[in-house]
Amino acid sequence: MAGFLTVTGALRAWYSIGIVVLTAILVMIGSVVYTSHQQQRSDRRWCAMLAIQASPSPPPSTPRGSSTQAEAARLADAFGCPKETK
User: pLDDT at position 86, please?
Assistant: First the structure.
């Protein structure tokens, strides 16, 4: 084998295909990482509002208020809000 270049100086076909596949894989990985980061950032924006609704002070006076408070606490856990803000 004469290396990865042809006589004319171009890359051999397998190297070219390998570079294209590697680039596609890197772009896919980057897209997944970026999307995951943005989703977590979006979820965290709700934490302040959920902390207010899930606050036990003052205690809810109706069954609907109790269920709303419990659901807000559940959503805060699902969004991964810090415990001290709940």
Answer: 41
Q: How many domains does the chain have?
A: 2
| Residue range of the domain that includes 57 | 45-86
Please check whether residue 75 is in contact with residue 67, taking contact to mean a CB–CB distance below 8 angstroms.
no
3-state secondary structure of 17: helix
Query: Are 51 and 32 within one domain?
Result: no
pTM over 0.70: no
For residue 1, the 8-state DSSP code is -
Which candidate, 52, 31, 33, 39, places its Cα nearest to that of 78?
Answer: 39
